[in-house]
Write a structure and sequence with these properties.
Mean pLDDT: 80
Radius of gyration: 26 Å
Number of helices: 4
Structural class: mainly alpha
Number of strands: 0
Largest sheet: none
Helix content: 55-70%
Distance between the termini: 72 Å
């Protein structure tokens, strides 16, 4: 019992020392004004905040997030095929992919995927 407490305290002490050393060694002595200023998508942070911003960047980000999340949802479907009813799995997969295809068609139809404008 005593040895477990001793080992736990020793591990706590070692990790604390390593974190303090990492904090001390990682600090830079020279602070650069340019590097310490915020960087916002290539815009100068010192200028007016009311500059026109293209919403296409925002829309492409949302589209990426939607299709990135759908990959995270489709991959486990392949793993659970062994453990589920094949008919229910097939219907669920078809409905899910159909919803994604309808969303992709809608984005294409609205011109969100066209960068020529």
């Amino acid at each position: 019992m005593f040895s477990i407490i001793f080992i736990a305290l020793l591990i706590l002490l070692i990790t604390t020392i390593v974190m303090i050393l990492a904090s001390i060694l990682s600090k830079k002595g020279l602070i650069d004004r340019e590097k310490s200023s915020p960087f916002e998508c290539g815009f100068d942070p010192k200028s007016s905040s009311r500059l026109p911003f293209s919403l296409r960047f925002f829309l492409i980000t949302i589209i990426f997030l939607i299709f990135d999340v759908e990959i995270a949802l489709i991959l486990p479907m392949i793993i659970i095929i062994k453990y589920s009813n094949i008919m229910i799995w097939t219907i669920t997969s078809i409905i899910f992919i159909l919803i994604l295809l309808i969303g992709l068609y809608h984005e294409w139809n609205q011109g969100m995927l066209n960068w020529s404008n």
